[in-house]
Design goal:
With 108 residues, this protein is of the alpha+beta class. The protein has one domain: Conserved Hypothetical Protein Mth637, Chain: A (2-Layer Sandwich), CATH 3.30.1200. It contains 2 helices and 6 strands. Strands 1, 2, 3, 4, 5 and 6 form a 6-stranded mixed beta sheet that branches. The two termini are 23 Å apart.
Length: 108
Amino acid sequence: MDELTAGLKIQEVDGGVVLGVKVVPGSSKTAITETLGGMVKIKIAAAAEKGKANRCLVEFLAQQLGVKKNSISIIKGKASPIKDVQVLGVTVETLLNKLELNKQDESK
């Protein structure tokens, strides 16, 4: 496994990356909180109803990564808190840098 991914479940795919995400809907604000079991844990301000949390997740990641919303798709786990999210147009290194996942911060 690449040292850069710091144990995260990230795969390079043709034209982008796939990232393992654990979503916690209904939080006070949308933010990345920690890495957990190879996934990125993201608190989502929207409720888990009628796809609101998924839309909020896509909008948040698009904003953080500087890509269009249609570059991001949930390819596994649409109705689950555990998701695989594909992001087109970024590299693993770009994703880690923009989401600040490359910092070895164990204090969280």
